[in-house]
Design a protein that fits this description.
The protein is an all-alpha fold and 100 residues long. The protein contains two helices and no strands.
Length: 100
């Protein structure tokens, strides 16, 4: 048991300083954890957005490729028709004009 009042005050102040330091350390740890969780969520959302953009881009590229393939087929068909028309002695223009 402490009889000296100055020693009692010093002990109380020491305990208060230790409690204050522990609370501050706990606050710093909680803030670091909060920042870490926020950063993980932000990165996860960025990853999700990149994947969504990649899928949309992939779909658009597939559509462009399909459209280009169809256009090439139409051009090839028109070219073959023009070649056949030239071989048969008919101009492709006159052939089109003959159509009703």
């Amino acid at each position: 048991m402490i009889v000296d009042p100055a020693a009692a005050v010093a002990l109380i102040v020491s305990i208060a300083v230790i409690v204050y330091a522990v609370v501050n350390v706990a606050i710093v740890i909680v803030a670091a954890l909060d920042w870490s969780i926020t950063e993980i969520r932000r990165r996860r959302e960025q990853r999700r957005q990149r994947e969504l953009l990649r899928r949309e881009t992939e779909h658009e590229l597939m559509q462009i490729e399909a459209d280009a393939t169809a256009a090439v087929r139409r051009i090839e068909t028109a070219f073959v028709a023009a070649q056949q028309a030239l071989r048969s002695g008919h101009s492709p223009v006159s052939r089109v004009e003959e159509l009703p």
